[in-house]
Every structure is written in C-alpha cells, then in structure tokens.
## 1
Amino acid sequence: MSKVFPPVGRRRAAQGAAAAVVLGLLLWWLLPLGEDPPSGTITFSTGTTSGVYHEYGSRLRTELAEDMPGLDVNLTTSNGSQENVARVATGQADFTIAAADAVETYEREHRDAVARLRGVARLYDDYVQLVVPRDSDVRTVADLKGRTVATGLPRSGVRLIAERVLRAAGVDPAKDIRAVSEGIDTGPERLKQRKIDAFFWSGGVPTAGLERLADGFTFRFVPIDAALVAKMHEQDDATGYYRATNMPESAYPIIQNGSTVPTIAVSNLLVTRTDVDPRLTEWLTRTVIKSRDGIGRHVHSAQLVDLRTAIYTDPLPLHEGARRYYRSVKP
C-alpha cells in the first residue's frame, strides 16, 4: 500500500525556497561557484610538536579535509622558520608558516629565491619570550653573559632572532654565553631541571610548551625593551620586521599576574611557491580565512587572522591564487 503524504502549503513551500536561496549564497561564499574541489597531495611544513606552527597546521589540515576531501595534506615537522622557508624554496614542501624576518633573511642569502617564493596570507604575530626561573638574578638580556642559554634549534626562527637580540645587548652569542641548541620541545624541561639558566622562544601566545611548564614550575619573562629593539634595527634590513610591543597580560596569567612584558613581535606568513596551482591556492586561502574562528577556539593566535590584514605578506608578493580569492571578496 502506498503511503500518502500531506500536501505542502504555499507558505511552507516559500519558506523552503527561501532557505535554499540562503544556502546557495552561503555555499557561493565558501566555495568557488560551479567548481569541483582541487585534489592531489601537498606537503605542509610546520614546526616542533610543542609549538604553535604545528598545532595550527594540524587543525588547518582538518579544515582543508572538509573543503577539499580529495586533497591529501602531509604534515612534516621542522626546526622552524629558517628550515621552513628553505623547504618551500627548494620544493621539499608546498606550503609553510615562517616569520617575515626569516623570509627576508633567506631571500637576501639566496637571490634566486625571490622569484620563487610567494605569500598566501599574513597570519598572526610571534612574540619573543626570554624565560628564566623566578628566583634567577637575570634581569636584563645583558645579564646573560657567562650563562648557559638555549638559543633555539639550528635553522629555527628562534635561533635567528635570539642571536640578534644578544648582539644588540652587547652579548656575543659565540663567546659570551654557553649556547645550547634547545627548542620549545626540550627547553622548558631543561630549565626546570636547572640544566640551563635561560631559554629563548619566539612564537604565538600562549604556546603549549610554556603553558605546561607553568603548571608546576614558577618562571618569569626577562623584558626586551624598545631601546634594544632600536639597536637591533641597526644590524641589517631583516630586523626591520621587528617591532617593540608588549606581550599581553592574558598570555600566561599564572606567570604574569596581570602584567604585560616589553618584548619584540614579528609577523608570520603563510608561504608557497609560484609554481603551485593557483586554483588550489585560491581554495586554500579561502579555507584559511573562513576557518579562523574554528581553529581559534583551540589555537588562540589564529583568532588574529584577519581578512583586512591577510594581504600584507611583505616581503613576499601575493601568490596569484591568493590574489584571486582576495579580489573575489573585496567589498
């Protein structure tokens, strides 16, 4: 026996039609109209497992899987910005995150890379965090002379900026300190064990590695004041991407007790190459922008991704695919 369905009234039909129109407009904004999602395989170079680069990259991969189910995203960990830029420039990775100063430094040292590297989006800022035990007598960067200091992993953005900070303070990183290659994965535990006196970290705030350290170990941040940043600007062109700022008091509330910390900020860029498919890059850019709030619920730094500032990827020009996306949503 066939089942008889009740007739649909005019009002209900009109409501259904309106809902379909709204859904269609929403899909038009989220996805390029009439196109199948790009597919294939890409490699995304992130960072150390306890850093923000890797956490952001992992969550972005989840978002990309929803928008482009046929796209396989291979995440590879790295020591940080300097290694990331080199990987993309040499074809070992297709996309990465890197600090603007590391990009500028790489391009100055490899002039042929200028024609290959392109920006996708400006993401969020890294803050330089110089960490010491609470009872340490180190009060300024200059006080690090004679100490054992973790200056970051080789080819990391931390290493690049730490050595510049030290030189600006009159500390020779090769002679005046006992420099050790520890990053955010190992530096906090080494500090806790008193095997090092201080360590540098540059990353989005809060960083999981430091949050874990704060749970059971009392430390503090050594300030890096504006005068020191001004001296850094005299070193080379790449230091122009550093700006004096304050790390917000909300970064590590247990440690900061409501106080800001004078320090340095540098912007992070999503980077690719000119030969990466423009349609894929357009879709990826769209996902980066629309997933801000979703990723930001887990990665605080991602909340700062903003359509209005994403286009400013200096020193890199925008990739053609990214440019297409920003033009499509321009008011």
## 2
Amino acid sequence: MNVRRRLISGSAIAAVTALGLGTLSACSDSSAASGNTGKFDVVASFYPMAFLAERIGGDHVHVTTLTSPGQEPHDLEISPRQIGSMERSDAVLYLKGLQPSVDEAVEQSPVRTKIDAATLTTLEKHGTEVGGHAAGHQEEHAGHDHESADGNDPHIWLDPVRYAEVAQGVGRAFEKADPDHAADYKRNTAALVKQLDELNTDFKDGLAHTRSKVFITTHAAFGYLAERYGLTEEAISGLDPESEPSAARVRDLQRLAKADGVSTVFYETLVSDKTAKTVAGDAGVRTDVLDPIEGITKKSRGQDYLAVQRANLKALQSALGAK
C-alpha cells in the first residue's frame, strides 16, 4: 500500500480554507469550541483512542472519531470535513506513526491540546515474529505503513499494561486542558487503570500454563501482548495486514505449526481470512479470530475494548491449550 496516497493533498487543505472551517465541522452542534454544548471536544484518531477519551472524559467530553467502525484505520484518508472538525476541537488524541494522514493533519492543525499516545509509553520494534523462529524473514516486511517512521510497532493498546500507561497520560492531559473537571478526570482515569490492571492479571494467570506458547496470526499486531505474557507470535504477513506472504514464508509456517503443535491460525475481523484459511488448511489446523481491536463492529466479540480483549484471551487459551 502506498503511504503517500494517504497524506493530505494540497487541494484538501485548500478546500478547508476556501469553504471555511465553520461549514466543515462534522458535528457543529457538538464542538465545545463552537460554544454549542459547553463540553470538552475531543477528536480521536481511531477506536482505541476514542475508548480512552470516552472513559476518562465521561460526561464532560464529546468525542468524535476520525475512523469509521469497520474501516481499517491504516487506510484512512482524512477528509476536508474532518480537518475542519479537528480545527474546531479542544483536543486531538492520536497515535503517531499509525495513520500518516492524521499525523500530517495534526501537525498542521492549530488545535491547542495535541495528545500523542506514542509519547505516553515505550514503543519497540516487532517484525514478523517475537520469539526468534523467523527473524530472517523480517526484512521482507520492512517499510510497511503499519510501522511508524522509525520502524516501531504502534500496536501498544493490545498490551493492557502499556495501554494503562497511555490512559494515565491522557488523564493528565485532560486535567491540564480542562482544569474545571480535573477531579473527575483523575477519578475516571484511576477507575479505568484499575480495570486494565485486572485485565492484565487475567491474561497473566490465564496464559501462565499452556501446552504451547506459539500462535500464528495474519499480521503482527500482537507483538506487545505476546512479549508481555511469554508467548511467541508468528505472523503470516508482517506488520501490514494486507501484504501477501511469500511462498517460502507459508511453507515455514506450515512446518512450524506441526513442530510446535500449533492448533489455530488467527485472522482478524477487518481483513479477509483467505490467507489464514490457506495456511491453516495446508497445515491441517483450524482458524479463529484474534481481534486487534482497531474498531468495534457487529462482528466484534464484545461491545468495547475490555470485552473484546477478554474474548481474545479465551481464544488464546483455547488455541494454546491452557491448563
């Protein structure tokens, strides 16, 4: 996929200027900047950021999400209307390195409070795998736009511990930007962090004793989660969910599945399961969903981040033979 096609075009910026920011707001009655609601108006780049904003902000915020439910966030091409909505907001919450068009829009925007989740925790480089089986294949997948500019893996929200760190940073940013409601933001942040701590404990205990530690996914979204709980992720297509794996990579995974007793090839809800079924069929194993939680749709196994993560835990326990 071509990164450049997602960057904001000069014509889009010109359209914002020509048409006027007021007419472009996606929800003019919901912007605190417009004075119509009196709420703290937050633009979130995609679902994991929106979830944090809504849970931490509570009744004091109005959250607009740039990425529609069911849309692959990496494919987002930000529109002039969305640029206008961002211009009118009080804060933008995003994850730099995940969505190039959002990064550029934020950089050009005069919005006062810019919260980059990538600065609120530590990022690492993850390639095709995390445990050493297929390090030689990482160079095949270098340069995909799922990576940040420095090659770091952006999927920090799938690690409950890192996600809790981000939540704490978002809470502090909200307190500073909207001090009238700081006490509520602090209380809401603490409640969310407690839930994420409990989720971490559930994963740690639930995956402590398993028959296997290796799982195969369509793309390398679960590097942080695997590292956190002592697992090895083997990805069919690297960090880009839509890249085609080489024939050699498919053969390697089929051999690995047999050698390590892998029972399941995981795919995700927003991307085709075709490749996963091909690998699983040739290896004689089943397929199942492991959701990277980039958006909530009718196909999601839960209505919010916490519920879908617990569904992911059950899927991993089943696939790895939890005892």
